[in-house]
Amino acid sequence: MKILKTNQNKVDKKVIDEAVKVLADGGVILYPTDTVYGLGANIFNRKAVKRVYNIKKRSYLKPISLLVSSKDAIPLVSRASVNQLNFMDKYLPGPYTFILKKSKIVPRHLTSGSANVGIRVPESEIACNLAKLFPITTTSANISSENTLDTPEEILKQLGCEVDLVIDVGPLKSKNPSTIIDLTAEEPIFVKR
C-alpha cells in the first residue's frame, strides 16, 4: 500500500496521475471528498468494485454510488431529464448524491441490478480529477453501519485491510456523508444525510 500526502486545496498532478493509474489497473484507493473519505474503484472493473464491497463488508444487494468529474458527465451515466439537470445545477458541485435512472453504460454490479444509480459531483478538486477518465465508486470509507472516521490512519485500522493507494490530506472539515436526493419520483425526495 502506498500513502501519498497532499493538500486538499491544491491538486498535485503527480498524485492524481498515480492514483488514476492504480484505478485503471483495477486497484482500490482511499481518497478525500468534500464530505468524508471514500473508497474508489473504476466502476467498469467488476473485480475492483467487488473488492470495495468486501472491504466495507457491504451487502451485494445494496448499490454503490458513482462519482463523475463534472456536471457535464451526468448525462453519460444517467437518463436525467432537462428538469432534473436544472434542479441539480443549483446544488452541484457539492455534498449531494442524486438518485437518477441509470444509463446503459452503468454496470449492474454497481447498482445491484437496480434501474437507478446514485451520482456525485463533489466540491473536491482531488475527487473530480480522479474521475476524469472514467467514473469511480464513491462510498464512505468505513465498515457498513459503523461510524465514518476522520483520518486515513483511523479508517485503515477500522477496515482492517489494505487498499492499494491512499491520498492523505489529513482530517476533513466535514464528518457527514453526502445528502441523498432521489429524483426518480415526480418531486425530489430528500432521503437522508
TrEMBL record:
Q: What class of enzyme is it?
A: transferase
Localization recorded for this chain is:
Cytoplasm
Name the reaction it catalyses: L-threonine + hydrogencarbonate + ATP = L-threonylcarbamoyladenylate + diphosphate + H2O
| Cross-referenced PROSITE patterns | YRDC (PS51163)
From which domain of life does this come?
Answer: Archaea
Q: Where is the YrdC-like domain?
A: 13-193
Keywords from UniProt, A to Z, are:
ATP-binding, Cytoplasm, Nucleotide-binding, Nucleotidyltransferase, Transferase, tRNA processing
**Main localization category:** cytoplasm
State the similarity comment: Belongs to the SUA5 family.
The name this protein goes by in its record: L-threonylcarbamoyladenylate synthase
